[in-house]
TrEMBL record:
This is Integrase catalytic domain-containing protein. It comes from Planosporangium flavigriseum. One of its GO terms (molecular function) is nucleic acid binding. PROSITE patterns: INTEGRASE (PS50994). InterPro entries: Integrase_cat-core, RNaseH-like_sf, RNaseH_sf. GO terms for biological process: DNA integration. Residues 1-100 form the Integrase catalytic domain.
Amino acid sequence: MEIAVLLIRDRDAQFTSAFDAVFAAAGVGTVKIPPRAPKVNAYAERWVRTVRVECLDWTLIWNRQHLQRVLASYLEHYNTARPHRGVDLEVPVSAPVAAVTMLLTARRVERAMSGEWHRVHSGTADARVRSPELPVLRRAPDVVR
């Protein structure tokens, strides 16, 4: 993962000099966008909205490590599996051969989401792959009264 060397931010009052000092101590410079120019940072604003709507609004984040794993997983999905209108509904980066092979050989991918099991069937192998960032949730057995 590349380390950021520059943070471009708007002029909102929530960004104080203490905010800039934290980044300066880490060796990251900060640049303020021009006043009254919201379109200058449009790509970053759209990226934040996309991540929130497609990923973070649907996920319960437990801690910083979990957030980093979820964002890394989403970033891989965003660049290798999600179609983009700007490139004729293609993916920006081709999926690695190993990932494609794993998908073709896995018979069932099980993920726990909202307490329900979702299954995706493909290939013929009997391997099970679980997402490491999601806790395994099982439904409680029905109680007969």
